[in-house]
Every structure is written in C-alpha cells, then in structure tokens.
C-alpha cells in the first residue's frame, strides 16, 4: 500500500513534468520578444548576424522540432544551453538552486516557528496578547515582500549595520548572516497568515464540546491542549503552512531581486523575459519537483497527524 | 517588479525617514544640474592598494567575447581586463594601445604591435593574434555585432611578425575609433581555438593582455579579475580583486553602495542619484558621456513624415523636465544629435560650433505655427513605449504633453519592459508606430559615431528609411578625410543639417556617472570606460 502510493506519486510526477515542460515551452515560445534581444542589449543586429545566431540556437526550426530537441536532450540529462550565456543550463541552475533552497527553507522555518507559535499564543491566551497578535499580523500580512525588503535594509543593514545589504555570503555563517533579512522579508506576510489561521483553528477546537468537557473534568491544561486541541487543529495548520511554503518558491524572486541574490526565482523571471527557453524549462522543472515534494510531505504529515486519514487521500 | 515604482518610491522615502539615510535633497533642486564645464574624465589617481571590491552592473554579465559585448554590463567586465589595438583615453582622444597605427597611403593602414606586448600567459602578442581577432570580428558566420565597423576594409594581412596591414576599399578615418574600442580588442588565437564554443563563456573565459587578468566567472557570483603582475605596459593595478556583479534593484544597489559592500558602479541612469550625491559614504563623479537620449522617428510615412511637424514637436518639448526628472541633473541640454562628450579630436572646433548652435528651447508659438503650416492639426502620432520603464515612460509622456499643446494627438503603443527592445530589432513590432524613445551611443568618442548609424541609409539604427543625400555626402566625405579639423567641419555641417531635418529628436545628453565608495579613487569617469581599461589607476585614497 505504501509502495503503491509511492509508485503512483512518481508516475504522477513524471506526467506532471512532461505536461508542464510542454506547456511552459509553448508559452515561452509564443511570448512576444526575441531571444536574441538579450544578447545585443536591444541594439539592432545585421541580418547576417541574426541569421547566424538563429542557426546556432536552432531558432530557425519549427516549434515542434525545437521542443523535440529539448526533450531528447532532457531525457539524456542534458537540459540544453542558455542563449545569452552559451553555458549548460544544469550548471547554471546548480549554482543558484542552493541559494534559493536555503532562502526558502530559512523562511519556512521562520513561518513554522514564529507563525504557528504566535497563533498558538493568541489562540490560547485571549485578551491583550490575542489582540496584539491580531493587530500586528493584520499589518504584516499587508506588507508586500519588496517593501519589507527596502525597510529592513534601510533599518538593519544601512543604519544599524547589523546585517549585510546584498549578496549571499560565503560559508555557513556568512550565508546565514546574508540570508537573514531576505528570509524575514520573504516570510513576513506568510507568518502573519499562518498565525491567523492557527489562531482560528485553535479557538475552534477549544470551543468544541469534547474539549470543554475535558477542561471541566479538570484534566490538566497541557494535556488538553496537546491531546485534543492541537491534534485536531493540526490539519488546517499543516494545510496552510504547506500552501504558503510552496508559494514562497514563487515569491522568492521578488526578495532575491531586492537583496541582489542570484537565486533561481530571479533568474527564472529574467530568463522568461528574455525568452531563454532552455533556462526557463530547467528552472520550471526544478520548481515543479519542489512543489510536488512539498505536497508529498504535507500528505505524509496528514497521515501521521490523523490516523483516520489514508495516505494519498486529502483530509477535508 | 517595475510596475510597483510608486510603491517602491514610497517605501524608499519611508526608509529614508526611518533610517535617516541622507535623502534630503529633492530631485528637482537646480543645484544638482551640471554643465559640460565641470565634467571630469578621470578621478584622482589612487595612492594606496585596496582590498577586494565588488563593482556593480545593472544586470549579470552575459558574455565577455568581444564579438558579442554590446551593452553596459558586458563592456564593463571586458574593458576591465582586455585591451584594444589603440587606446581610448579618458578624454576620448586616441593613443597607441597594443599597437600603433600609421598610414602609408589613404587606403593602407599599418598596425605595428608593441614589441613588449604579452598576453597573461606571458606569450607575446603576434601579428597572427591581431589578424585572427579582427577577422573574427568581421566573420559573418560568427554573427558578431561589429561587422559594420569593417565595412571599408578589404584585406587584413600579417606583413611581419608584429605588423599587420589593412587594405581598404576606400579611405576610412572612422576606423581608428573602432580599433580603439571593442572591435579592436586583441584576443589570443591559440586560446580561442582551444576553447572553441566555450570561448567567452563562464567555463571558457578569455585570454587578453591587460593590467588585470580574468580570474574566474560563475554566473551566480560574477566575473572576477585580479592584477596581472607581469603587465607589459604602464599601469597600476592596485585592487586585490574586482568582482563585476549584476545588481538589478536600484534600492539594493543604493543601500549596498552606502553600506560599503559595493565598491563602485557606472549607473546608466539611476533614480537615487540625489540620495547618493548627498551621502558622505560615497563619491559621485560626472564626466563626459557619449550617449544621447532621443525620440527615434521610426516612420516617415505618417504624421511625422513632414519635417515641419518634427520641428514643431521638438520645439514644444520641455527638455528641462527630462534633464531633471530622468537624469536628476546628470545630463547636459541637447543641441545636436551627438553628445558634446564625444568631442575628442578637434575638440575646440566642435565645442565652438556646438555653442553657436541654437539651444533647443521651448517655443510653443512657433511650434503651433509650424503645425498649422503643415496642415497637421488634429493628426495623431503613435509612440511606442513601456510604462514599466520609468525613463521611457516619462519621455513618452513629455512628448505627449508637447504634442497636445500644439494641436496634435498622441497614442501610446505600450508594451512590457522586456518587449520594449522589440521596437529596435523587430520590424513587425514597429508596424504602426511612428516613434519611440531611446538612449543610445556610438562605439567611440566622435560626434559622427552615433550619427552614422542614424542618418546613413544603411545605418544600423536608421529605422525609418531616412535618406538625405546632402547629409550622406557630408558624412561619407568626413569618413574619408584625414585632417581632423577638416573632418570636424564636415561633421559639424552634417550635425546642423541633421538638426534641421530631425531624423531623431534629441531630448537630453546624459553625462557619464561613476559612483564609488569614499575610500576608492582613480576610476575613469568618462564614457571611455566602455571602450578601454577603466581600473588601471583605481585604488585606495
């Protein structure tokens, strides 16, 4: 049953990748613009130069032939060559994937620890704590990541000098130092969302009859919270955390741009704009895999959290 | 991301007030404006060695192969460590580089390679390397961007171990400028052949002869150069390591410059210039520029086909607003299509003629009268623009305002920031578009360099089929005239006639700007950084 589930997921992933690769290739191909524009900085090329470059990158061939070239290469593990850089896509992606992965994991950690933590606090402690969490999270939820980036940089990097303003740093400590502000900027609105959903879920559970009964029977509070409240509230909390963490992958490009991080997100946006198809394909596939993996983890968590949930089925 | 400019500006202001980052001066304070008089081509030479620095460019470097280097970031990286046959000096004049140039007759150009010149690997620069470098540039199979520069060259031959002779189809005195810029960069034949398709890419690198040498390039962290201890010429590579890295976001760039994490940058146009000029942590220097901001007239069959309408539009434009709002004073007013920063040879002659040329001042009455004369009242001009590129959007808006004041209508053909490029390279994108704004420059410091691409019938940037026999004659004659003064007279006449006919409408002449941390000095501060080594005197104060 577990094995069957795993095989199903792998087959689904393969199909997803194939469909996504074709859809993305088509969209990039149809998008307005000229892949050679990125090469020349928008200056006009002589017709000879244009023709020579088009031939070099198969741009003069029909659409399906171009996709065929790409797919055949991808199946052999060769993701093709970036047009402006004339460099293997796989090495270009490897360079950047680590930055984005670290950034997203760092932000995810902040979301889980701070978001769920604050939500628990607000849900279990009605009164001024609850109100202040509500007010602060309402404000934080409304701040776009790039505004958070500018303000955080101005305060903590330029004025106070606690953190660097730009770049990804060297070594583990340097990397952590460089990615702290970006991770906070990236996580900020998601922390607020997760905190609010957690708070609501906890309050709903606390109000339920069986919990109230447990409390009235004098069962110690920590037992009530862990056994009754948390276990049932865990499902919506996991869902919203999974969704927000998955969305970080897409949001990361904004933050990467603001902090001069050469990550995948920023690179995907740039490559899509310059119609660098091979790079767009490569990064998209990495992101699709990441997305699917996050979903698998969330699924697995459901099964762990709630014995009534069968692996592979979604809880309501 | 550019869509959010308003929000971004708001956030920047907020950041200024929260963090007390010096954001005091308003952008339209006239004290920020500069005239050509106080532009400096160099900053004071360094006296001490400096630690490793990062040098920012507006996007990541894409190539360092001289065939395809065609935009600010790639030029900045390449000219850091590669050298041309001739050398563009900071003031735009041409000196000997790897070679010296002489002419035995008007169609025979001899290049004598300096006997001391060596590549980074210690091997001498030979005639074969020079021939190979130039032939690569003009090989249509390779699709290099500078083939046009060699249009009057017939053969390129080694006539000695260190001598190369170019035989020309016609005399060509524009060639010197090209050979002092990217088309004249000398690469090592052996190295290029060994690297094949990887040459000039992150994994292949390059082999040149400059005072800094290429060290490494990883697309995610930038192009790294280190001093070349065995440099053959006179230079002083004092910075331990220079990393050329793309920083896309202006706010991030500004913060990093102020925090000292970025050592310097040559921003093409930066909205935070007033902030940087007011901040003690950085030094802003303005120097002569080669770039011209203009409205490209791409269709001479529509409303703008009548020269009177073009003149009227030019007369109605508020150029001061563009200089203030787009360049924050880092531009001089336009009188010609050429930027006065390009005056190098025959400088006084050019400057005197430029000063005598009429300033392009707003004159709505005359403009209205011209529209009446042309019978163009109520007709429409379609301007291609991108509301996502602030400078372009501002300029397009200024033209719309100007047109509406004099009885013309303007429609915008607005596209995304990245699609804006297509107006320049895709005839389909230009269909139905009468004009679009641009900022562009010639390869070298000469008023003819940019103009030739605009006014000549086969010019690379002549989108409208503009063809004036008189302008063409003057330009072609100038190209074949040896004496610099006589050549200048012809170019001056061509410029003046060009300004009457307005194949393009110039809007401003941006200065070159260099921003460095306050401890650094010695960078070239004119647009010459695009053509020649700019860090040979860079170091600590």
Automatic annotation (TrEMBL), chain A:
InterPro entries to which the protein is assigned, alphabetical: BPD_transp_1_N, MetI-like, MetI-like_sf
Transmembrane annotation, as ranges: 12-31, 97-121, 133-159, 179-198, 233-255, 277-305
GO CC annotation: plasma membrane
Family indicated by similarity: Belongs to the binding-protein-dependent transport system permease family.
Start and end residues of each ABC transmembrane type-1 domain: 97-298
Keywords from the UniProt entry: Cell membrane, Membrane, Transmembrane, Transmembrane helix, Transport
Name under which the protein is recorded: Peptide/nickel transport system permease protein
UniProt topology in membrane: Multi-pass membrane protein
Cellular localisation: Cell membrane
One GO term of the biological process aspect: transmembrane transport
Main location: membrane
Domain of life: Bacteria
UniProtKB/TrEMBL annotation, chain B:
Keyword Signal among UniProt keywords: yes
GO molecular function: peptide transmembrane transporter activity
Any one annotated GO CC term: ATP-binding cassette (ABC) transporter complex
Domain Solute-binding protein family stretches: 104-459
Protein's GO biological process: peptide transport
Keyword terms of this UniProt record: Signal, Transport
InterPro entries: Peptide/Ni-bd, SBP_5, SBP_5_dom
SUPFAM superfamilies from the UniProt entry: Periplasmic binding protein-like II
Residues of the signal peptide: 1-20
Family under the similarity heading: Belongs to the bacterial solute-binding protein 5 family.
Name listed for the protein in its UniProt record: Peptide/nickel transport system substrate-binding protein
Organism name: Nocardioides aromaticivorans
């Amino acid at each position: 049953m577990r094995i069957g589930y795993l095989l199903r997921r792998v087959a689904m992933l393969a199909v997803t990748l194939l469909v996504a690769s074709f859809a993305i290739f088509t969209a990039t191909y149809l998008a307005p613009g000229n892949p050679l524009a990125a090469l020349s900085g928008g200056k006009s090329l002589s017709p000879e130069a244009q023709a020579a470059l088009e031939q070099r990158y198969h741009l003069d061939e029909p659409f399906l032939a171009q996709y065929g070239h790409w797919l055949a290469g991808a199946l052999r593990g060769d993701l093709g060559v970036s047009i402006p850089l004339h460099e293997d896509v796989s090495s270009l992606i490897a360079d950047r994937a680590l930055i984005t992965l670290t950034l997203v994991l760092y932000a995810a950690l902040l979301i889980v620890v701070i978001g769920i933590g604050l939500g628990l606090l607000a849900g279990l402690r009605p009164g001024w704590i609850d109100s202040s969490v509500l007010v602060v999270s309402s404000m934080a939820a409304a701040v776009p990541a790039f505004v958070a980036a500018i303000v955080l940089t101005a305060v903590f990097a330029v004025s106070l000098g606690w953190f660097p303003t730009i770049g990804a740093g060297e070594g583990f400590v340097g990397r952590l130092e460089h990615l702290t502000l970006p991770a906070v900027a990236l996580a900020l609105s998601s922390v607020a969302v997760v905190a609010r959903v957690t708070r609501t879920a906890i309050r709903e559970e606390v109000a339920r009859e069986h919990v109230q009964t447990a409390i009235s029977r004098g069962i110690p509070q920590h037992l009530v919270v862990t056994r009754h409240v948390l276990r049932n509230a865990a499902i919506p909390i996991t869902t919203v955390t999974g969704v927000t963490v998955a969305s970080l992958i897409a949001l990361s490009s904004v933050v990467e741009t603001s902090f001069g991080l050469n990550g995948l997100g920023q690179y995907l946006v740039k490559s899509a704009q310059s119609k660098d198809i091979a790079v767009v394909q490569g990064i998209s596939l990495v992101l699709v895999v990441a997305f699917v993996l996050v979903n698998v983890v969330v699924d697995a968590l459901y099964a762990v959290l709630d014995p009534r949930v069968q692996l592979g089925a979604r809880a309501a | 991301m550019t869509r959010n400019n308003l929000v971004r500006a708001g956030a920047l202001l907020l950041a200024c007030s929260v963090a007390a980052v010096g954001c005091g001066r308003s952008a339209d304070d006239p004290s920020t404006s500069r005239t050509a008089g106080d532009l400096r081509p160099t900053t004071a030479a360094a006296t001490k060695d400096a630690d490793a620095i990062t040098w920012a460019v507006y996007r990541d470097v894409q190539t360092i192969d001289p065939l395809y280097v065609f935009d600010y970031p790639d030029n900045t990286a390449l000219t850091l460590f590669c050298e041309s046959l001739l050398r563009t000096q900071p003031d735009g004049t041409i000196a000997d580089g790897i070679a010296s140039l002489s002419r035995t007759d008007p169609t025979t150009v001899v290049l004598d390679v300096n006997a001391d010149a060596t590549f980074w690997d210690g091997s001498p620069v030979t005639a074969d390397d020079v021939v190979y470098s130039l032939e690569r540039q003009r090989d249509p199979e390779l699709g290099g961007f500078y083939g046009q520069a060699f249009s009057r060259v017939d053969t390129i031959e080694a006539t000695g171990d260190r001598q190369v002779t170019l035989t020309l189809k016609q005399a060509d005195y524009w060639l010197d400028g090209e050979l002092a810029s990217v088309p004249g960069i000398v690469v090592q034949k052996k190295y290029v052949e060994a690297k094949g398709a990887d040459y000039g890419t992150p994994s292949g690198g390059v082999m040149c002869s400059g005072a800094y040498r290429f060290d490494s390039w990883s697309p995610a962290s930038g192009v790294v150069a280190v001093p070349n201890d065995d440099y053959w010429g006179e230079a002083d590579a004092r910075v331990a390591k220079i990393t050329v890295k793309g920083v896309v976001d202006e706010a991030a760039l500004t913060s990093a410059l102020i925090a000292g994490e970025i050592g310097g940058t040559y921003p093409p146009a930066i909205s935070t210039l007033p902030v940087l000029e007011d901040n003690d942590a950085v030094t802003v220097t303005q120097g002569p520029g080669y770039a011209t901001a203009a409205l490209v007239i791409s269709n001479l069959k529509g409303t703008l086909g009548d020269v009177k309408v073009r003149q009227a539009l030019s007369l109605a434009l508020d150029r001061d607003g563009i200089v203030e709002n787009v360049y924050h004073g880092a531009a001089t007013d336009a009188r010609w299509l050429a930027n006065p920063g390009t005056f190098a040879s025959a400088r006084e002659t050019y400057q005197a003629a430029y000063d005598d040329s009429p300033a392009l001042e707003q004159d709505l009455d005359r403009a209205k009268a011209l529209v009446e004369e042309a019978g163009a009242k109520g007709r429409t001009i379609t301007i291609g623009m991108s509301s996502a590129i602030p400078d372009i959007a501002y300029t397009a808006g200024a033209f719309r305002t100007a047109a509406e004041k004099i009885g013309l209508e303007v429609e915008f053909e607005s596209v995304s920031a990245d699609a804006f490029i297509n107006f320049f390279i895709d005839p389909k994108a230009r269909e139905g578009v009468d004009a679009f704004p641009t900022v562009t420059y010639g390869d070298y410091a000469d008023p003819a360099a940019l103009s030739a691409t605009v006014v000549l019938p086969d010019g690379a940037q002549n989108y409208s089929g503009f063809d004036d026999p008189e302008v063409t004659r003057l330009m072609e004659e100038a190209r074949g005239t040896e004496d610099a003064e006589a050549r200048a007279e012809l170019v001056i006449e061509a410029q003046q006639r060009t300004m009457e006919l307005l194949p393009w409408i110039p809007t401003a002449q941006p200065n070159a700007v260099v921003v460095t941390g306050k401890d650094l000095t010695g960078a070239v501060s004119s647009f010459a950084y695009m053509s020649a080594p700019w860090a040979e005197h860079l170091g600590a104060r």
